[in-house]
Each structure stands twice: as structure tokens, then as C-alpha cells.
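Regression test attached.
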Amino acid sequence: MDTINKLVMYFEYPFVRSALLVGMLIALCSALLGVTLVLKRFSFIGDGLSHVAFGATAVAAALQMANQFWLVLPVTIVSAVLLLASGQNSKTKGDAAVAMVSVGSLALGYLVMSLYSKSANLSGDVCSTLFGSTSILTLTGTGVLLCIALSILVVAVFLLFYHKIFAVVFDEEFMSATGVDAKAYNFMLAVVIAVVIVLAMNLVGALLISALVIFPALSAMRVFKSFFAVSVCAVVVSVCCAALGILASIAIGAPVGSTIVAIDIIGFFLFSIVGAISGKNPAV
Amino acid sequence: MPQLVCENLTLGYDGNNIITNLSFEVNASDYLCIVGENGSGKSTLIKAVANLISPVSGSIRKGGGLKANEIGYLPQQTAVQKDFPASVEEVVRSGFINSSGLRPFYTKEQKLLAKENMERLEIYGLAKRCYRELSGGQQQRVLLARALCATRKLLLLDEPVASLDPQASSGMYDIIAKLNNTVTTIVMVSHDIAICVSYASHILHIGGRSALFFGAKKDYLNSEYGRKFAGLRGVNRRDGYY
Ligand SMILES: Nc1ncnc2c1ncn2[C@@H]1O[C@H](COP(=O)(O)OP(=O)(O)OP(=O)(O)O)[C@@H](O)[C@H]1O
Ligand SMILES: [Mg+2]
């Protein structure tokens, strides 16, 4: 009873409501792209990019930029394009490049933060950038609007290019052979993935982005066997987990990001069990 | 105006030339069979025509109004991931992407055509099934149906019946012949000399890094390589290997 009262009270605050809305939108985007990321074996690139976003955030903080988006977003997009391009040429080199960029930006980000941070609570800052402890609740007016705009953009791109994304992810070689510009679609995917990662960083922090992006897709793949069903299911799972996670974190005073991810993990186990019982998914 | 002109084509990987100085052309509504031993470079040639690898030297020109997005392609092998969620219908329809432009959905006609192609290949009953859970032969038919959706002009087929049962293969060859009779040019790799001889209009026999023979089918049967190749396979057939 107490918790419900507490929740109702919190809902009086507009920033809680906008946090919930933005959180659900971000969850929706990350699930949509998560399916592609998992199927294209890009999970590791997503992870690398999240570290790049962390490094860029650190620099933006050191520069005391009013709106960190304008640095973080372009840097992440450029890295995504470069990483995906290098990954195309040769597998091992691509892996190494991702690892280099990923660990490198983590180290440099922390270095920049320690050297230039004006804040008295350095480890608190680092922790909240990495684990997004409260960032979604502290989003300002423009931040909220920007998040909403970018989310809508991502969803629009996904809906407009849904069949093309499926086709290119399923069999890029066939698409190139039949005259489709698969490279252009890969480029587009790289940009959208970068946008999603920057968005997701607001919700769960840099380190947990991969979890937010990957778990709903993996859960859906346990039970469903068509691209359409998996996409729809991943979105539903992700949005529900995010909403539950935000509410739960407010109720019990836990960090938002890790609460959402914890619920995503529970969801994954539930779907694994359902998949195993329905016998649709014997192995993997 | 030929649909496809290959001139002094040299193809290879990482500095190793697989085919050197190959020239041939394909006219609209030809049925070209490419034959040759394992490793002679047939798939490599098909991939070059499909623009998947670029020639070391020489040129591949498309003419006769053939655009890059009017080619259907069936690879010898498709490496689709084990756990990819995709239904048969989704895969077949994806053949239309090259003619869809920026349209975000498939049209009624495209959906109907996809259905017809699935019916032709007798996989319409599998439309809602998961692609990766089908047998090898069923998967092959799905990819063929997709290739049919991708073109009305030129179909590149790399061993299209490799994993089909005998009945399905002869059905497949009938379908290909019908397509060839209506509109589509066929370029097909096959080890089945009996089929090449009965259906094809032209034969390209590659070996020893170049063309051993290129020309009309009837000339092939009278040529040195044609007699040897056809004779060889004929023996195998009597022995039951074939
Ligand atoms: N990706 C590649 N990289 C390097 N060499 C390759 C590659 N693909 C093929 N080759 C080499 O090129 C040669 C020709 O291969 P190709 O696949 O074109 O033969 P093929 O005529 O299609 O044979 P098959 O009848 O077995 O299908 C082979 O010697 C092969 O080792
Ligand atoms: Mg081959």
C-alpha cells in the first residue's frame, strides 16, 4: 500500500511522467534495432559504441557543454560508420578495431573526467555515466524533446525500411547481386544504431546499453520464428520491462538502469522456459 | 544488342587468377549452360556477373535495357545463420526489394506473384514455416522462388538443383525452361550434361583457366570437348553413378 501511495505521489511530478514516456520510447527503439544488431552479429559493435559514447560524454562534461548530445551523437555516429566499414573488410581486423576503440574510449573518458571534472564527487559522476543511475530522471526540457524526436526518427526509419532491413540482414550477398545497394543500407543501419545507443545511454548508462538492446531480441527469438513476430515481441517485451523497471526503481529507490536490465534478464529466462516448453526451440 | 557481354575477362582472388581472358556474350532469351570441373571457376564467373566480385581485368557489360536491379540470383551456397528468425514467405518476398524503390511495403501484385512462385515450386504449404527448420531441398526451393521474384529478365543460377530430389529437379528444369520460353534469359551452372544438352541454347565449357568451348549447343556436341564431356557422363550414367 505504501509503495503504491509513493508511486502515486511521484506521478504528481511532471519529470517522473516524462521519464516514463521517454524511457518507454527509448526501450522501443533499442528493441527494434536490437533484433538487427543480434542477427547481424553486431552485438560487439554495439558494446564498443557504448564505450565511445561514454568517452564523448566525459569530454562533453569536461568542456562543460550545455547539451552533451551535440558532441556525443556525432562522435558515436562517425565511430559506428567507421567500425562497420572496417568490420566488413576483414573479420579479425574488425574485431580488433572494435576492441581498441572500445577500451580506448573507456580509458580516455575516465582520464578526462578525472583531470578536468569540476565536480567534488568524481566517482559518483563516473558511476552515473556508466550505470545511468538517475540520468533519465534528470533530463531537462530540451533533453526530453530531443529524446522524443530521435526516438520517433528511429521508429520512422525502421517502419519505412522494414522490409529492406530484413532483406539486407538476412542475405546481403543476394541483395547486392540483384542490384540493391546493400552498402547504403548498412550505412543507414550504422547511423541508426549510433542514435539508439546515444539514446539508450540516457536510460541505462553506457555500460548497460548492450543489455537493453540485446535481451529483448534474444527473448523474442526464444519463442518466435519469423522476423515480424520477433520484432513485435521484442518491442513489447522491451517497453514493458522498461516501464516496470522505471516504476520499480522509483518505488524501491534503486538505480533505474540496472533495475530495467534486471527485469530484462528475468524476461529472458521466462521466454527461455516458454520456448523450451513449447518445444519450438530445442537447441541454442 | 546482347544482354551481357564479357570481354577478355580475368577473374581471381588475392592475386591468383582463376579464369583468364574469357570472352562470351548472352543475348536476350538465350539459355546458357556453364559446365566445367569442380574448381574450374564457374561460381566465380557467376559472382562476377552478379557484381559480387570485381574482375581483375576485362569488362562485363550489361546491355539491351538490362539494369542491375533486374537480375535474379541463386547462389550455390547461402550461409544463413542457424538461428535466424525468418518465415518462408518473408524470404520469398524479399526478392522484390530490388524493384521496390523506396516503397515501404509490398504491393498486392507482388504478394500475388510471390504466392504464384511459391506454388510453382510447391512450397506454398510451407509459407508460414520457419526457413531454417526446412530441409536442404526445401530451402533451395525457397531461394529459387526468391530469385524468381527478383527478375523477369536475367536469372543467374548456380547449380539450382544441387539438393533437390530427382522428381523435384526435373520439375525445376521444366520451370526454368518455361521461364526461358516466356521472357527470362537463363545463365545456369550445371553438372548435368543431359540437361544442358536438352534445354540449353548455348554452352560455355570452362577449364584450364579459360573457355574450352563457347557457342551454340549443336556445335558443342560436335566439338572435341563436347564429345569428351558428354561421352564421359554417358558412361557414368550407364554405370549408375549419374
Ligand atoms: N573466396 C575465395 N577466395 C579465394 N579463392 C577462392 C574463393 N572462392 C573460390 N576460390 C577458388 O577459386 C577456384 C574456383 O572456385 P569456384 O567456386 O568458382 O569453382 P566452381 O567451378 O564453381 O566449382 P564447383 O563445381 O565445385 O562449384 C577454386 O580453386 C577455389 O579454391
Ligand atoms: Mg561452384
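Expected vs. actual: identical. The radius of gyration of chain A is 19 Å.
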